[in-house]
Every structure is written in C-alpha cells, then in structure tokens.
C-alpha cells in the first residue's frame, strides 16, 4: 500500500508504497509542512518552492547519529503500521505467511515456529504483511485447503475490514502516545500569537525575491494570512507597500512589491505565508492534564495535515515538485534530530498521522483502496469482485508507487549537498 506522510519541519511531502490487495499490507511515507505552522498558502506560489535538502556530511559523528535516529523513527513507524495488520489478523486467528519491512530481495529473514517468515528487505519503501491465498504459486505446497476458513479471503467482511484498517488505527494510536510522551518529557506546546504574518520561504526569481524579501521576514501591516492573500490576488501589476520586520535589522522598513500576473489573471508574489507566533512549552500539572494537552495537540496536528492534503490536491501542479522520498525524509529528520530531541517527537507524530490519513485515501496500493473494494463487495450483497479484476487494480497501483519511490530516491539523493559537492 502507498503512504504519504506530512513532515513537521519541511514543506514537502513524500510517497512510499504500502500494500497489495487482500493478500498483503504495506506501508511507505510522505511529508508535509512545519508542525508549528499551518500549511503554507499555495496561492502565492508562482511554482513550487524547491529547497536544497539538508547536508549529510558523512564525516561528522553527530550527523551520523542524527541520521540513524531519523532512520530509526521511520523504520519504527513502518513496524507500527504493519504490526497493526499483523496483530489484528493474529487476534482473529487468520493465517499469515509473511511479515516484511521493505520490498525486494531479503537482506535477512527467519521463520517462526508457526511458519511465518519475518524479513528485512532491500528497498526501504515501506513493508507488508502477506496472507496465504489460493492464487499464490506457492499455495499448493502449503498443505492448506482453498476453502480453509482461516484464510483472509474466506473470512466475513467485518474481519477483513478490521485487518485492513488496523494499520491506520495503529498509527493513530502511536501518534497520540508519541505526543503524550513528549508532553510528559518536555511539556505541551503553547502558541503565543505575535504581530504580522510570517514568510517561511521565498521563491527565487519571484516578485518577492526581486523586491528584497527574505525567508523569515514578517509583514507587520498584514491583517491575516488570508487577508494578505486576497490583497495580492486582487493587485496583479500594482505596487503594494509592505512593512517588513527582519531579525537582523533594528527597525521595520517598507518594501514595494509588484505581484506577477498568474495565468488566471490574479496576482502572486512567490512566497509562503504563515501566522506569526512563538511556541513555548507548558508542563502538565498531572496525568489528566497531560492526557488533555496531548489530545488537543493531536487534533491540531490532524487538522493541519488534512488542510495540507486538501491544498495539495487543489493545487497539485504547484506542489508536485515538493514530493519527497525516504532520502529526503531522513535528511530532514536528521536535521530535526540535530536541533532537539523534542523536535524528533513531533517528527514521529506528524509522519504517523500523515501515514494514517493518506492511507485512508481510496487509491490502489493504499489501505483505503482495499477498503473501497470491500465496500463495493458489501454493496453487491457480499458478492466478491472477480479476483483477476481486483488483482489488476491493486497491482497496477503498487507498480506505480514502486517506480515513483525509486525515482524520488535517486532525485533526493542527487539533491543532497554533499552529493552535489562530489559531483
């Protein structure tokens, strides 16, 4: 199945594969926006703001440690997702044949006394839980009857629905536990509003860049993000004076920006915008307050991810360039780990939530795609879809995801600073 995951620090997101039809469950990741910020407003982007990936110099032991920490977080999230499928099937006494982390040739594997093969595989694009099926070439040698009631395909719809959705449930529960652990260890996030609108990023060669606006600047005279968006969209080719505050300068100054005219006739200046606020940590007074604080943060992050997903699909031509694969996710995660262990908690929570939300999309190779097929079966009065049709739908999605994942790995690796230096 395919997974997208929202990134807490970077305004990219990533694709990864996760699961096949009813015979396998898989999980990849995606990334999105800064957790402390709402989704950057895409209406002001002339095109996707491409940032250089954080450098990963191999000689620095602290960098190697942070890369290992980020990689461990991602691997752990895959394990959590697949363990959800595995645990649900085990509790329902459904036969399981394989539990794998990654895809492709196995690097290491062993079989349990119950005959389940556990493996670590070559391509870190997710993982899967496989179930015996009469259509598998190896099935005749398994000694299992095709009508065995413990085969997943022979189970009633509610059992199959539980097994398929259990990965998403596991990620949601784990995200909450991560936020709860962060709250206990570091305190709950409290956002203190500050004047103006923050500019997290500026696109090179855009109108804002030409006017001298820099990432990190604050527009003091903007009433709100959406108020500024409306002003810029309605002013193509017209000079707009903006009062800018910059950390390196003692006093605010005025910048005149002339928005470019977009293809739809509206103006845009090529920046990302966010409300301006300061984040502090508040220690919970007791366990009940920690539960409440964690719940508030869980809901806030989920809302941010859903909003970011909506903006991505509504403006896909502008955001497609920000899709990131596992290399970019680990690079950004390593940057977070070097900054603070607190940020690594947020990194894990956001990717877990992102993985859960994206997996529910009704697309082939996603848990949501499998759930959609089960709903079609329910609407047909329990009559299964033709096996060949089901296989074609799901396998085509898995192939696309694997190809996209490999392309992203190559692209993101070439974008790493130390790789560019070697080239």
Gyration radius (Cα, Å) is 24 Å
Question: Could you estimate the helical fraction of the residues in percent?
Answer: 40-55%
Q: Kindly state the mean pLDDT as a whole number? A: 77
Strand order of the largest sheet: 9-8-7-6-12
Shape: elongated
| Poorly predicted ranges | 1-54
Number of strands: 13
- Beta fraction of the residues? 15-25%
Q: Please identify the structural class as seen in this structure.
A: alpha+beta
- Taking the alpha carbons of the first and last residues, their distance comes to 35 Å
What pattern of helices and strands is seen along the backbone?
Answer: EEEHEEHEHEHEEEEEHHEHHHHH
- Contiguous helical run count: 11
Give the tally of structural domains.
Answer: 2
Describe the sheet with the most strands: 5 strands, antiparallel
What would you note in describing this structure?
The chain has 11 helices and 13 strands. With 423 residues, the chain is an alpha+beta fold. The chain has 2 domains: 293 residues, no CATH class; 92 residues, PDZ domain (Pdz3 Domain). A 5-stranded antiparallel beta sheet has the order 9-8-7-6-12. It has a 3-stranded mixed beta sheet with strand order 1-2-13. Strand 1 and strand 2 form a beta hairpin. Helix 7 packs antiparallel against helix 8. The chain is elongated. It starts with a strand and ends with a helix. Its cofactor is Zn(2+). GO terms for molecular function: metalloendopeptidase activity. One of its GO terms (biological process) is proteolysis.
């Amino acid at each position: 199945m395919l997974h997208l995951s929202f990134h807490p620090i970077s305004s990219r997101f990533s694709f990864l594969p996760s699961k096949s039809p009813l015979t396998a469950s898989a999980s990849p990741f995606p990334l999105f926006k800064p957790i402390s910020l709402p989704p950057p407003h895409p209406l002001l982007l002339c095109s996707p703001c491409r940032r250089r990936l954080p450098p990963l110099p191999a000689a620095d032991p602290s960098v190697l440690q942070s890369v290992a920490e980020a990689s461990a977080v991602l691997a752990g999230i895959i394990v959590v997702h697949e363990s959800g499928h595995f645990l649900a099937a085990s509790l329902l006494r459904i036969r399981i044949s394989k539990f794998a982390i990654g895809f492709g040739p196995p690097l290491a594997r062993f079989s349990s006394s119950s005959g389940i093969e556990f493996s670590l595989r070559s391509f870190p694009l997710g993982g899967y839980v496989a179930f015996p099926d009469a259509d598998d070439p190896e099935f005749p040698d398994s000694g299992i009857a095709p009508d065995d009631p413990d085969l997943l395909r022979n189970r009633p719809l509610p059992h199959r629905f539980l097994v398929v959705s259990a990965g998403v449930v596991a990620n949601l529960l784990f995200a909450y536990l991560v936020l709860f652990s962060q709250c206990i260890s570091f305190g709950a996030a409290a956002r203190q509003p500050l004047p103006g609108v923050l500019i997290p990023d500026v696109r090179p060669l855009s109108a804002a860049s030409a006017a001298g606006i820099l990432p990190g600047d604050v527009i003091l005279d903007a009433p709100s993000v959406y108020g500024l968006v409306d002003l810029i969209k309605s002013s193509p080719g017209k000079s707009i004076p903006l009062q800018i505050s910059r950390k390196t300068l003692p006093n605010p100054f005025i910048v005149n920006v002339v928005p470019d005219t977009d293809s739809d006739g509206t103006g845009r200046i090529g920046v990302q915008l966010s409300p301006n606020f300061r984040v502090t940590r508040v220690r919970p007074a007791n366990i009940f307050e920690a539960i409440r604080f964690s719940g508030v943060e869980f809901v806030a992050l989920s809302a941010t991810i859903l909003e970011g997903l909506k903006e991505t699909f509504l403006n896909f031509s502008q955001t497609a360039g920000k899709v990131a694969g596992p290399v970019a996710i680990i690079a950004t995660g390593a940057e977070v780990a070097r900054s603070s262990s607190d940020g690594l908690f947020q990194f894990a929570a956001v990717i877990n939530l992102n993985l859960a939300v994206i997996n529910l999309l009704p697309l082939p190779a996603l848990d949501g795609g499998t759930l959609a097929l089960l709903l079609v079966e329910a609407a047909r009065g329990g009559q299964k879809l033709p096996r060949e049709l089901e296989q074609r739908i799901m396998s085509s999605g898995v192939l696309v995801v694997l190809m996209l994942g490999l392309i992203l790995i190559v692209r993101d690796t070439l974008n790493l600073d130390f790789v560019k230096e070697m080239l």
